[in-house]
Specification:
The chain is α/β, with parallel strands linked by helices. The protein has helices at 11-26, 50-65, 75-79, 81-87, 102-110, 142-146, 154-166, 190-198, 213-226, 245-251, 257-270, 289-302, 328-351, and strands spanning 2-7, 30-31, 40-45, 69-74, 92-93, 124-128, 130-131, 150-151, 171-175, 205-208, 235-237, 275-282, 306-311, 357-365, 370-373, 379-382, 391-399, 404-408.
Length: 416
């Protein structure tokens, strides 16, 4: 039988999907190039916003109509199993907390198909380090799917890390719902884990994934010290979610705007060229014009490298779904205004990088050429074909709102 793992959503979900693919391969299933060519489709779902949920349900219906065997995993398998069961009453539904049973359940249902094989994911690797988080945000369905923080043992993570390096990984994405919370339930911390990773020899880049500002605060000094090592991207993704303390309170975020900027100032003081990415939720219940204006001002004051803007989407089972909603038209108008300001600000920030050269890693093929990542995780598109997983010196020639354009400084000779 042939299998295909179709993953949606965050880096964490994609990383877990790769683990599920390895489980399928270990049972002798043959990989298919697409769901159309597969006998068994592992649909690794996301349900973070309503539009994604609707897409998942349409996808389930399409796979059922095509006569596929479907195994449903990911957040919907835990947070909304009933919606899945209605459409796939006889399928396996395996929540993230039960991934330890995935291999056995597949074997019980389909048997062993042949000799175990390996899976090649190229030069990029994803390493999930924990499940769940310590937060209780009023809008978050992911909390319902993933639960409280459960950090994976550092010994197991370091063993996995060594295995990824041995398989040729050049970019390793460390991920969780809140990476900076790692170890708060087991007596260790993210910076201790990352320091142990950087003790390993090798020519690679390590990226720390999304982290709650409150969690980053306790490890900020340790992480800043580690960023002296060029193998650790000088990059943090710290979602602020709103520029209004009133809205942050309603969201049950555990910091203020002032505290957030104090964190940013601390990181920039220790690592002057650090890249800051953040997220904003637009149109949260009860958000006023004044609250919205404060989010606009936050974008201008923060001058982040990347701002991700998401329109609020009421999720079933969350407290925010019961609050007074902002009209969709108003939310759309505010989203458009935030996007215009963020694009203008990011273009201005990126323009300051034109003319500079960076040792960059080729990570993926884009529409305009090869996407290279600088040491502070900025994407630079070069029109040359650069082998993925290799480093090259790149000079930035043009700026766009969300990326940079560049040329290879020393073609060919700089590959390593």
């Amino acid at each position: 039988m042939r299998y295909f793992v179709e993953s949606y959503g965050c880096t964490m979900n994609r990383g877990e999907g790769r683990g599920l693919a390895e489980d399928m391969a270990s049972l002798g299933f043959e990989p298919a190039g697409s769901a159309d060519d597969a006998d068994v489709v592992v649909l690794n779902t996301c349900t973070v916003v309503e539009t994604t949920e609707k897409h998942m349900l349409r996808r389930i219906s399409a796979l059922r109509a095509a006569g596929k065997e479907v195994v449903v995993t990911g957040c919907m398998a835990k947070a909304q199993p009933g919606r899945v069961q209605i459409r796939l009453p006889d399928s396996e539904i395996i929540a993230p907390e039960d991934y330890g049973t995935f291999r056995q359940r597949i074997m019980d249902r389909y048997g062993v198909q042949g000799c175990a094989t390996s899976v090649d994911f190229g030069s990029e690797a994803i390493l999930p380090i924990a499940q769940g988080c310590l937060g209780n945000c009023s809008y978050c369905i992911t909390k319902l799917a993933r639960g409280d923080l459960r950090s994976y043992p550092s010994e197991e993570l370091l063993s996995s890390f060594d295995g990824l390096l041995a398989r040729g990984a050049r970019e390793i994405l460390v991920t969780a719902q809140d990476t900076a919370a790692y170890g708060m339930d087991t007596g260790t911390s993210l910076d201790v884990l990352v320091r142990s990773m950087l003790d390993r020899q090798g020519d690679y880049r390590l990226r720390i994934g999304m982290a709650d500002p409150q969690s980053v605060w306790r490890v900020r000094e340790g992480l800043a010290e580690l960023m002296d090592d060029e193998r650790l991207y000088r990059f943090v993704h710290i979602p602020v979610q709103s520029g209004s303390n009133t809205v942050l309170g309603a969201m049950r975020r555990k910091y203020t705007v002032e505290r957030f900027f104090e964190l940013v100032d601390s990181l920039r003081s220790a690592v002057p060229d650090i890249s800051i990415a953040t997220d904003l939720i637009c149109g949260f219940p009860g958000e006023t014009d004044e609250d919205h204006a404060k989010s606009i001002q936050l974008i201008r004051d923060l001058r982040a490298d990347t701002v991700n803007i998401t329109r609020f989407s009421a999720r079933p089972g969350t407290d925010a779904a019961t609050m007074e909603q902002v009209h969709g038209r108003i939310s759309a108008e505010r989203s458009a205004e935030l996007t215009e300001v963020k694009n203008s600000t990011e273009l201005d920030v990126n323009t300051g990088l034109v003319g500079r050269s960076f040792l960059s890693l080729a990570t993926e093929v884009g529409k305009e050429g090869t996407i290279m990542r600088t040491g502070h995780y900025r994407p630079v598109v070069v029109r040359d074909e650069v082998p993925l997983g290799t480093f090259a010196e790149v000079t930035v020639t043009e700026a766009r709102a969300t990326y940079l354009l560049g040329t290879l400084t020393n073609t060919g000779s700089r590959y390593r």
